[in-house]
Amino acid sequence: MSEIQRPGALYQQVAAAIREAILSGEFAPDTLLPSEAQLMTRYGVSRPTVRNAIAALRAEGLIDVRHGKGSFVRSSGHPTLTLERRISRTSEGKFVMPNGDTWQEAEEPNTYRTLTTKTTGRLLQLGEEEALFGCDRLLIDPATGTRAMHRTLIPFEVAEAVPLLGEEPCKPPAAIYWVLTQVGGHALSWTETVRAHMPLPDERTALQLPDATPVLHVARVAHDADDRPLVLEELRFGADRAELAYRITADKQPTRRARP
Predict the structure, then answer these.
(1) Any idea what DSSP says for residue 32?
(2) Of the options 2.30.30.100, 3.40.1410.10, 3.40.190.10, 1.25.40.340, the CATH number for the domain spanning 81-245
(3) How far apart are CA 81 and CA 245, in angstroms?
(4) Could you point out which of 78, 120, 191, 217 has its C-alpha 20 to 30 Å from the C-alpha of 150?
(5) Residue 123: what pLDDT?
C-alpha cells in the first residue's frame, strides 16, 4: 500500500486508514492486527506514529489491546448474554427471576448502612441523606464470564415496617419480594430505567472492562399498591457483554360507561 497522503496529523491519517480497513472487513472482528513493524511498512511511517494511531483507535473502542498478545479488533457481534427483565410468581407465591440461576457470587456480599444521593433519593422518592440499608454483590456468569455489580437499597422506614429486611438486607431480590408480600402484606409492581455511562475506575476494575466500553446501569424499583417505592435494585455491567430483553403487554384501559 502507498504511503499516507491525507490532511491532518500523521498519526490521525494512519488511524483513519486502519479504521477504514476495520470497517470494510479487511481486519475482521476478534482478529489480531498486523504488528507495529508491519503497519510501519504498510503505511510508511515511524513506530511512534503507529503507536499513537493505535492509541487513538483504542480510545474509540475499535481496538482492544491484550497485554502480551497484541492489538485485536473489537468484536461487533451479538452480546454474549441476554438478560430477561421480567418477574414471575409460582403457585405458592414465590417470585422467580428468569436469570436467577445465571449468576454466581464472585465474592462475599457487603452489607452496610448508607444515605440517599440525589439519584437514589429521586428513585426512592426520598430527600438526600435519608438512611438506607445497602448490599453490594459482585456477580459472574460462569458460562460467559460476564461480570455484573448488583446493589440493593432499602429505606430504613421500609425495614422498620418489615424488620426481616433490616436484619437480612442481602437477601436475593426474589426473597426480598417474597418478604414484602408475605410478611409486609404489600401488593408489588415495578418500574425500571436503563442508562449508559462511561465507567468509573472501580466499575472498570470490578467488571474487567476493555477500553472505551460503556456501562449499562439498570435501576429497578419495587412499589406498593399506593405506588410508594419500597426497594431499589441497581445492576451494572459492560455494554459489550450483555443485552436486556423485555416482555411488553398492553395496559388495560378503564371501561367507559355509556351516558344515559
Answers:
(1) B
(2) 3.40.1410.10
(3) 10
(4) 78
(5) 97
